[in-house]
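debug: dumping io for the single-chain case to check the tokenizer round-trip. Nothing else runs in this session.
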Amino acid sequence: MMDQNPKKGLTGDYFLPRDFEIVQPIYDLASLLEINGSQKESSLPKYRVFSLERAAHSLDGYSAVITKWLKGDLNDKDLDYIPSARIRELLTSIKDTGTIQELQELLTPEAEGSLRLRSIRGLGASLVAEFLYSGSNPSHELLTASTKRCGMPQDEILAVFQGRSCRLWQAPHIVPPLVRFLKCIEERPSKRLKWQIIGIADGISPVRDRFKVHMLSENIETGQ
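debug: decoded output
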């Protein structure tokens, strides 16, 4: 159980969006372009996928460097990797809206399920692409082929695809965004709200299951 006031002593930088949050939509866009390209007859946009993945990988991290850079608090010389004008445009869109318009146009429920399947090692883009075009209930043949490929039981693969499995999350990917969200709630103009997180022991241990935010007399259940 986490401290009811975990932001005590934290600096303002702690509450800025982290680099891994900013670049995640770029990873997602690259993945969907690759998945779509591997299934459709049209040629795979290999160079664009490569450039998106390279930019995301080069900018990925637990700091808030990108947010500061986009705000103008850091200069190009402060970055280890300077994004191209196109990548900067995508980063600005993510900062302002939380996503990329092109990504949103590709995000069907099946596409979101296909992105979740990335957490299963061994499936590969071509097999994941079959899930993308399989509808909400993949065939027994597809699940059987997936089990042979990765060794995971069919029901577990289906649970990941349909968003019913939490899988394993590293706490740094959950705790900073969650605390930032709770800070915004606490600072609502009307009144300060007390809250308590149940199910996350600390900010280091992996999160293996759903957790609960207890706020006054209400509970906020978390999903995938």
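debug: round-trip ok. Residues 116-165 form one domain.
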